[in-house]
Amino acid sequence: MEFRNLAIIAHVDHGKTTLVDAMLKQTNSFADRTDPGVLIMDNNELERERGITIYAKNTAVVYKGVKINIVDTPGHADFGSEVERVLRMVDSVLLLVDAYEGPMPQTKFVLRKSLALGLKPIVVINKIDKPTARPDAVLNMIFDLFVELGAKDDQLDFKYIYAIGKQGISKLSLTDDNQDLTSLFDLILATVPPAASDISKPMRLQIANLKYDNYVGRIGVGRIVEGTCKMGMTATVIKSDGVRYTGKISKLYTHEGLQRVEVSEAFAGDIVQIAGFPEIYVGETVAESATADALPTLAIDGPTLTMNFMPNTSPFAGREGSLVTSRQIRERLERELEINVGLQVEFPTSDGEFKVSGRGEMHLAVLIEQMRREGFELQVSQPQVILKQENGVQMEPMETVIIDLPDNFAGTVIEKLGKRKGEMTNLTTENGSTRLEYTIPTRGILGLRTEFMTDTKGEGTFSHIFSNYAPHKGEISRRTGGSIISGDQGKTTPYALAMIQERGPLFIAPGTEIYEGMVIGASMKESMTVNAVREKKLTNMRASSADHIVVITPAIDMNLERALEYIDIDEYVEVTPQNIRIRKKHLKETDRRRFDR
Question: Which pTM does this prediction carry?
Answer without folding.
Answer: 0.80
